[in-house]
Structures are given as C-alpha cells and as structure tokens.
Amino acid sequence: MRKIEHIGIAVKSLSTAIPLYEALLNTGCYKTETVETEMVNTAFFLTGESKIELLESADEQGVIAKFIEKKGEGIHHIAFDVANIYAEMARLKAEGFTLLNETPKRGADNKLVCFVHPKGTNGVLVELCQEIIES
C-alpha cells in the first residue's frame, strides 16, 4: 500500500455536507459522482496528497443508509492506493483477511476497488484503490 488515498465519510445529505466541508477544508469540492452499483452519491475534496470522499445514500436500502441508521454520520472507511489491486488482494487473502468482493469493482473517481471486511481489521472498513488506466 502506497499511501492513504482517501477517507470516506458517510453523510445524510451532500447538499448540506458539501458547503460544510468546503468551509472546513478551505477548498472546493472538485467532483461529484453517482456509483449506481453501490447506490451512493459521492463528493470529493483534495487535501494535500489525500482526498476526502463524502458518501450519501442514493437509496434508502443502500449500504450508506444502513450504516448511518446503525452508527450515524461519520467516518465510513479508509482507502489505500495500491499499485496492483489483484496482487494486493491475493496478498491480503493469503494473510487471512476476508475480502468483501472476489474481484475488483469499478468505484468512484476512476478507480478499481475492493473492500476488506472490518472483522479482520479491528472494526475499520479498509478499501483498496487502483487508478484505472484506459488504453
């Protein structure tokens, strides 16, 4: 893992949270995006070399809606940039970690992603991210 790519924060409303984080971070939101497969709307902020990703459920049955219902708004996951997501998934699996998906999925911000189950990471949902390079 090369660096923290972003920290994901679950919010009830992007329209409320975006101005709050723009003021807090003293920078504008550079991108919003819907990831239909995950039923989530996202907003991104660049802070140094890392990013903050706000996550709003696009469906009341979505994972973010369920997370907020159970735990409230707040940090949802930490994402790490990896050079080769397939190799990192194989390494973590060999180390005994449980992956939430067997193959990487297309995520927000032009990334291939895979999540590591929080049961094996002291309760922290970990995301692996690799930039998609179109050829």
Automatic annotation (TrEMBL):
Gene Ontology molecular functions: methylmalonyl-CoA epimerase activity
Record-annotated VOC domain positions: 3-131
Enzyme class: isomerase
Record-linked Gene3D superfamilies: 2,3-Dihydroxybiphenyl 1,2-Dioxygenase, domain 1
SUPFAM superfamilies in the cross-refs: Glyoxalase/Bleomycin resistance protein/Dihydroxybiphenyl dioxygenase (SSF54593)
Enzyme Commission number(s): 5.1.99.1
UniProt keywords, alphabetically: Isomerase, Metal-binding
Protein family per UniProt: Belongs to the methylmalonyl-CoA epimerase family.
Name the UniProt record assigns to this protein: Methylmalonyl-CoA epimerase
Gene: mce
